[in-house]
Amino acid sequence: MMRPIVAASIALVLAACGDRPQELTGGAAPDTPNWQGTSNAYAAPGWKAGDRKAWEDHLRVRTQQGQNEYLRGGQG
From its phi and psi, is residue 74 left (phi > 0), alpha (psi between -120 and 50) or beta? Predict the structure, then answer.
């Protein structure tokens, strides 16, 4: 009676130790510049992938509108 319980608990413990592959899938390659982008649904409206000037302008506007992490926390 004790053997099935021991066998089941050992199987449960060993099953919990399994590790799934953690590979980056989809999206742009890691060496792709950010402004080239992807076909991401969360991209800013009106922005087209590959438009470097629009990307830089958008980042400049975000910085000027207070989305600068250096200014958060009352240090700016």
Answer: left
